[in-house]
Amino acid sequence: MSATVVHKFLTFVGFTSILHAAYSAAQHRSYLRITEQEFTTLPIDILIQGIASLFVVMYGVMYIAGDFKEIRAVVDLENKSWETLRNLPSFQVFNHRGRSLSPEYITE
């Protein structure tokens, strides 16, 4: 799954449509306050626009996000050997300032 310009455009249009539906809902509520009517539910066109744009955004984001990984960690760990599991390269720091603070440190 590669993100194309079409998927990015669909996501942008979906977000814009969601914002428009939210603005329309706020306008509808303010109209009801001005006319002193009771709020029961949103008009069906605003509901349909909000739900449809939500699905468009979900479709676009699925293609932009890339490939999904397996939820189970066992799938990734099955391909690694025991030596690779014990290797923690993020903790292997060789050049740090602690060495220069040591009394045995000799500058080169």
TrEMBL record:
Membrane topology: Multi-pass membrane protein
Transmembrane segments: 48-65
Major location (coarse): endoplasmic reticulum
GO molecular function, one term: inorganic cation transmembrane transporter activity
One Gene Ontology cellular component annotation held by this UniProt entry: Golgi membrane
Alphabetized UniProt keyword annotations: Endoplasmic reticulum, Endosome, Golgi apparatus, Magnesium, Membrane, Transmembrane, Transmembrane helix, Transport
InterPro entries according to UniProt: MMgT (IPR018937)
Entry coiled-coil feature ranges: none
Keyword Transport set for record: yes
Domain of life from the UniProt record: Eukaryota
Cell location: Endoplasmic reticulum membrane; Golgi apparatus membrane; Early endosome membrane
One Pfam family from the record: MMgT
Keyword Oxidoreductase attributed: no
Function description: Part of the endoplasmic reticulum membrane protein complex (EMC) that enables the energy-independent insertion into endoplasmic reticulum membranes of newly synthesized membrane proteins. May be involved in Mg(2+) transport.
Quaternary assembly: Component of the ER membrane protein complex (EMC).
Family membership: Belongs to the membrane magnesium transporter (TC 1.A.67) family.
Name the record gives this protein: Membrane magnesium transporter
